[in-house]
């Protein structure tokens, strides 16, 4: 569906709607409300504005966490907070200012900086929540997922699907820092969470360059016949070298006049389950994007929330009407229906995860894209909730 610059069409432009409401000063009405409250009832006519708004009104707000602030705090926590039973992980959650008192980046997404020092071991456990790690700095760490040791390197995406055992051990001399992403808020609201402790260390202290799951599943376009389909990816590691090659190839094809990029100057890949072709994690979508220097994206608003992290480069993000400079490591929370525009000063590589699989499964997905030229503005709305 396409709209004009003022955001309306003849079919969607709204006229003034008369409001019919009871007299809230009527004593008999107050007694009726008291009766509702005593019976555990709430009338729809007093709540409909919040329950069924004209457009999404998320509690979360657009927000940017600067890496220059986060990293020193993570290092200090490494000096003061041990890793082990009790806290389990030295993970520092992003707390959205619009969700006071909750360690949530958005209502559905949990994001944290995890810091593991040299020779430290994070003990094994498993939980209902699906999780990933996107590696930012350091080397010498292996995560052991269901007994399979997987090396962690900068730029890699590592998965820990729901109810997979996992622990980490560090054999290197410098700390490692990574982004944790989980569906903790969603699982919490659904009352679906289970957690189990494993051994105090990890089951495998080996340090292979290639894990067993990569040897079985890490061959592009080749699926092992004997392996069953799984709702989450059986491949636990998506390597930066492969991601980098794919993004580079898209931009090279654009230079040669061939399709492949998302929009001019912007390449992107999605991490998928090689068994099914769907998202790598059932409840979270994970992607990597690359912008050429000087590229400005179209402005997009999406039902559902996302978190972005700058991996390399510098640029700006516009969140609704706020323009914020971002650099390597910075994290950005984008609530549902927040307008997002990204501009690259240098080559800009960004990792992002979002809750789109949930909205697509519920037939609630919707995206509004606005593209601007010197003379025109065009807005297109797509998704299962459009007419």
UniProtKB/TrEMBL annotation:
GO MF term set: oxidoreductase activity, acting on single donors with incorporation of molecular oxygen, incorporation of two atoms of oxygen
One Pfam match: Cupin_2
Domain Cupin type-2: 114-180
Low complexity bias: start-end ranges: 378-387
UniProt region (Disordered), positions on chain: 1-22, 201-229, 368-387
Record-linked InterPro entries: Cupin_2, GDO-like, RmlC-like_jellyroll, RmlC_Cupin_sf
Keyword Flavoprotein among record annotations: no
Keywords assigned by UniProt, alphabetized: Dioxygenase, Oxidoreductase
Gene3D superfamilies: Jelly Rolls
Highest taxon in the source lineage: Bacteria
Protein name: Gentisate 1,2-dioxygenase
Species whose genome carries this gene: Streptomyces capitiformicae
